[in-house]
Amino acid sequence: MDVDYLREALRQDAQLAGDPEPNLYEQVRRQKSDRRRLSAVASGLAALLVGIGVPISLNALQSSAESGQVVNSSGIDGHLGLPTRGSLGNDRTFIEAVLQLPWDVAGGVPRPETRHVAFAADLFEQRWALVAGALEDDTVVGTWFFAWAGAEAKNLRPGAQQQVALPDEPMTAVRGGNG
Fold this sequence. Notes:
Radius of gyration: 33 Å
Helix content: 25-40%
Number of helices: 3
Shape: rod-shaped
Distance between the termini: 82 Å
Oligomer: single chain
């Protein structure tokens, strides 16, 4: 293989490839600039959405919390001093009926004047209600009640063990499967 043969082979390959793009440098620079501009616009739009969306969401949460003010005031802070949360917080008839549900508890019966529906809503095709109250020693106890979505209060049944909490501790419920 000699140098002339190699030159001829490279020349033929170059002819097959064709002429280089005119202004290839300019085209690459423009694409890079377009990508940067698009990225800046997307970042600005995301910042704008967050800047506007977060205050609106917080305002909506605050106003929805204020609109559901069904409080059975007992003088005890924590769970018993907050408005009823959840989608059924404004349904006074339902809330009053839930307050009348029997408490079947081993640790004692909460005083009727301290009972409060802390949460009531239809979630995951079920109706949920957390009823809290204070025992004689001001210990806060809560019981979760469950039924199918749209059920009347009389159809709610205790679905979790009674929970004892200090006034500022959360009360949770875990439901598995379909029921």
